[in-house]
Amino acid sequence: MKPSLAESIKMNVWVGHDATLAALAETRFGDHIGAENLIYVTISTGVGGGIIANSEMVTGASGGAGEVGHIAIRTGSYKCNVGCDGCFEGNASGPAIARIARDRWTGRGPLADLAEGNPEKVTSRMVFDAADEGDLVAQEIVDLTIENVSIGLGSLMNVFNPEAIVIGGGVVQGLQRHWQQLQQTVIERSLPGYSGKIPLTATRLGDDVSLLGAAQLAFRESCRL
Ligand SMILES: [Zn+2]
Fold first, then answer.
1. Distance of CA 68 from the midpoint of ligand 1 (Å)
2. How many whole angstroms from 85 Cα to the centroid of ligand 1?
3. How far apart are CA 66 and CA 213, in angstroms?
4. Per the domain annotation, does 225 fall within a domain?
5. What is the CATH number of the domain that holds 29?
6. H/E segment holding residue 164
7. Nearest alpha carbon to residue 171 among 19, 80, 43
8. pLDDT class for 195, splitting at 50, 70, 90?
9. Residue 119: CB partners within 8 Å, gap ≥ 6?
């Protein structure tokens, strides 16, 4: 596709995975300008990721690198849509959090009120909101989510030794209310050498983060020509 597009529009074309471009954007426009090693993880309807290592985008042999959502974090539990057992996405994406809530449905309390008594209406946002209102089951699910996210992020920390891990996506809005707990749990799930040095932040680049990365990719690569 890349050569034919370049030919038809008579311009140079570069292609990147959306989450990898988001990671690139964070090194140029986000809170970690100039970072040479950075991981971006989006936790939303799915869990995706992008990796910058030694200032380069990690693409893999066929462009498939960075699928951090399918790291196994809790085997024997939930599966994602692809079908892998106990992966990050199957246990910590927005739909995964809602599914866990449906499986633990009690039919009473703040979560049941927010979902108007219908477990099929439960969203991950409702789970976080209900926990804030004192719903004990919702709080258990929030704690489990923090644990699951931390296992995934701690694994990335150990493998890539990034200067920063930036997280984005809808579930992050809920996680931000528990930031200290999240950071502490990521520390517990990372090698002892990282204790107190987990550079975890939430993106501030909004919905255009991947577009900003695409612009940066085109700018950077054109300068290399
Ligand atoms: Zn999976």
1. 9
2. 7
3. 15
4. no
5. 3.30.420.40
6. strand 164-168
7. 43
8. confident
9. 101, 102, 105, 107
Decide if 140 is inside a domain: yes
Q: How far is the CA of 47 from the centre of ligand 1 (A)?
A: 9
CA dihedral 127, 131, 134, 137 (to 10 degrees): 70
pLDDT tens profile 19-64: 999 999 999 999 999 999 999 999 999 999 999 999 999 999 988 8
DSSP string of 86-153?
TBHHHHHSHHHHHHHHHHT--S-SHHHHHTTT-GGG--HHHHHHHHHTT-HHHHHHHHHHHHHHHHHH
Centre of ligand 1 from the C-alpha of residue 140, in Å: 23
d(CA 135, CA 42): 26
Instruction: Give 222's pLDDT tier (boundaries 50, 70, 90).
Output: confident
Structure tokens that stand for 164 in this block: 């920063």
Number of structural domains found in the chain: 1
> What is the pLDDT confidence band of residue 5, given thresholds at 50, 70 and 90?
confident
State in Å: Cα 67 to ligand 1 middle.
9
How many angstroms separate the alpha carbon of residue 197 from the centre of ligand 1? 29
- In a domain, residue 223? The reply is no
At 36, list the tokens.
Answer: 């040479």
Domain that holds residue 35: 2-216
Q: Quote the ligand 1 centre to 222 CA distance (angstroms).
A: 36
In a domain, 48, yes or no: yes
Q: What is the pLDDT of residue 1?
A: 56
**CA 48, CA 17: separation in Å to the nearest integer?**
10
pTM over 0.90: yes
